Amino acid sequence: MSYSVGQVAAFAGVTVRTLHHYDKAGLLSPSERSPAGYRLYGEADLVRLQQILFYRELGFPLDEIAAILEGPDVTPLERLRARQRQLSEEIARLQRLAEVAERAIEVQRTGVAMSPQERFEVFGEITFDLSYATEAELKWAESEGRREAMARATAHTKEDWRRLMGEASAWRAELLDAFDEGEPSNGERAMDLAEEHRLHISRWFTSCPPDMHRRIADDFVADPRAFALLVPPSQQRPGLAAYTRRAVHANAARHAGGRADTEEDA
Which top-level group of life is the source organism from (predicted)? Predict the structure, then answer.
């Protein structure tokens, strides 16, 4: 028995346009023609269509479906297993994103409400990039320190944030002075500034041992969005992020009783 394009589209739950696309792509071409020249699908065509729709539902692209149906070196079972792994990884990623969204909702619900003017007064030019915040949440999702930092940040009052940002602003001015005056990144002044920053994190967010501080500082160079939370772009200088990172690493080495493996700045 044979079926027209419209009939197949109706009982397969696809559009005629989709069937035409499959035909044009060489994925599913009707094997019969009516006396009037119309395309007709036979039983074998319907079986093939069912397979195509099955793989499409699993997210396989059309070219990969074609390879599966043409009897490739990789068996359908192997491809299904590979797709299962991909879907499991995607489910895990989406679950983490859902958790990030849930935390963001909680922050919005319980966080300190500020008008735009108040927010500018408190945070100044420091802005929080949502994409960076999301990536950081995923990167440090298993970190107890990250969870503590988020919890404490959520609990801060408006006055807490004023004091916190005031400390950060004063520290930033000292960092810029040290950099502009050519202080070496592994000198006492720069290392003391790095230590102040480490203690600032511990005081306001979470315990920050030197090793954790090094990892935080590595992001200053790896991701401009991270350093922008420390020094707004309008105040940055070429090489400042790397200078700050070297100072943090030098201070961590000082804590460990060793000598910093960092070059002095010219």
Answer: Bacteria
